[in-house]
């Protein structure tokens, strides 16, 4: 901005300032000398002087002495201000006890010198005009931001602010006339208080208490930025302050917690610290300009934890030399993304999901629950007709995304993270300690590191202190010793942001003292927001929570309808969150809790205090941003987090600012972060949602398709070349048992292919067999052995092939008993068995004979872990139950109750929890006409139900078939 030309008003102000200075500095002493003369006695007073009456002369002389002292003080202030303005070095010194006088002198000198030819050179000494007087006006922040610069930079900046100084001087004079002496005294300081429970000081709250407006926190930040604190660290981010730090306050600060330097009401230690801090003020920073924020490291930043040494730490914690599955982004993807020598696996999957092991595991677990729910609702809700046992097979992008989830997921990592956090909460509860405030968690080389907001003492074993007092660390070996506990999830707001130096960062959105802003291109921001929303909605280390999506994400709600809430705009957000904020404050007060963390430990943990995490993807207006900042000022204590999108990195009221770049890096310079961001791009987002929508039981009232994905020829002519028995102990007929240690791997690979007749991506296969990763050449060597073991059909075609998309498929000549079981049931209920009762009975009987127990009953411990991602454990019992029910109905039509009971008993051995089988068994037993047998069965059912009691449908059926069953149950009980 160019220097404004001097106007007549400027000249007039300067003339008036000159007149006032002339009157006060020269006129006042001249008038006193002429009118009063020498006010002090001409000789030493005697003791009798004290007993003499006080006359008019004595009173006038005393008043004259007071006026002379005031003149001397004011003249000293003028000289100090003129010297500072003319020299251009440093800030004006403070004349003791002369706050209002020095303020007036500064204003008059500024008004006079602004019209001079050398005004620009005087501005360093005048730059504090706005600092002392403007309150929450922009001039304060702008001036404070200029303070750390060197002299040359200040002089250049002074040219652009000369015009504003005249207006500030005029405004200051008006304030001085209104008697602002009580608010602008000596420099005031505030000492950051230690936390109480979870509540801890924030600059916003300090500004709210002592400046009357939380939005003025930036003034405090700019006054203290990069100044060395008593503990040797520096303030580099407005949201990261420590107990014991000292903050210089703006001149109009007020309140009993403020101290001046020196102050007789504080301890000598604190007084010394305040004095030392005062000497590192603006003038000191001018001499030492150029220091960088956060150069002291961990005390003011989110810091990457140090890797444990190979021999373990001093506490004897085992070294994390064994890399866990998906311990970090590089670990989980280094082996799966390398170039393959096989053309069948040359095409890639979604790298975004491959590099997001915790998100992938959460999505897979939620998808599995949804598909199981659909199966049960389809089975229990259908009356007559046939229930489908097969969910729709995904295709296209949905199939690629499902494969990427299978490859990238780390369910073991999620399990350990969840147990570790809950175990920590339980241990702290046992020690009657509250949960520390955790800003972030790092998964690094198999270890879990919690970064605390401030030191919280020694952690409970097996946790140890990390690289400093703000890190609590748990090795993977120790984490594996944790068992399941009923402790509440202590940090449900943790969410993955990305990786840095082989470490994965989870930011605790719930604990951030204010808003987290995210700037960058709209599409890039959307990918981050989608990833955050999807992981929060499906993660395995949380209990209940609410994720409020504002202005985006309506299509994401199928992922978790009970967690995700969509609001149309910011106005709806304010209406909702203002009410919830009031409600949470009241609830905490009524429960006598300082924060939600104290409600998650100790006797009150049953209350849970679930968080509400607000995701606002579009930038709010300036007015809405300030309103949102006010709403978020106390959010950390209440368990509410805010992540807000912004087109730039200067969102008003943002405590932490991040930026997503077009190349997928997540930057937060003031936090010391540069991450490879975790993203969920739009294509993958739509495909993930499609998987959940297809599995929704409410989407299709007729249920999933009833046709199995693979039907076999069940006639004599359809005898397969290779027959694998999976339902029960694993057996293979038609192949020689492979020799050597690779036999278990070959059997497991074949089982996976048999359970997925639609095809298996090579990377899905390698991830299932080697969860911790494997080189492509090892995988390809196994596939060649599997291809050679399976052999070829008589026509010369290989029994292990690949489809057009490169997925591994089995020939129709390779069949499992599960394929036969499905085909028999399908033929009995939808094929030839529909028209022929005899055929139906024979097919159902043959199907039930195939059931020899659970799937892969004799599998070795530690193998077949990929089954946790499958729903076959839910499909098989339902299929067996349907076969048993159909065969029972077949026999009861001819009054063959004993045959029906036999069929139901066989089905119950595989599906013991199916209520339909028990109810049908009651009807079949009632059909025998033996009341004692029915009473015995009823008593057995009551005993099995335990404290939960019988299901309502079973109770109603017993009331109909055996009205006296309640009396018998009461007598037995």
From TrEMBL:
Q: Where is this region: Disordered?
A: 303-347
Q: Does the keyword Transmembrane helix apply?
A: yes
- Sorted alphabetically, which InterPro entries does this protein's record hold? Bact_Kbp, BTAD, LysM, LysM_dom_sf, TPR-like_helical_dom_sf
Q: Does the keyword Phosphoprotein apply?
A: no
Instruction: From the record, give the transmembrane residue ranges.
Output: 12-38, 58-82, 103-122
User: Could you tell me the keywords of this UniProt record?
Assistant: Membrane, Transmembrane, Transmembrane helix, Two-component regulatory system
* Domain Bacterial transcriptional activator: residue ranges: 816-962
Positions with biased composition (Low complexity): 315-347
User: Which biological process terms from the Gene Ontology are attached to this UniProt entry?
Assistant: phosphorelay signal transduction system
Pfam entry (one): BTAD
User: What is the designated name of this protein?
Assistant: Bacterial transcriptional activator domain-containing protein
Organism equals Streptomyces fuscichromogenes
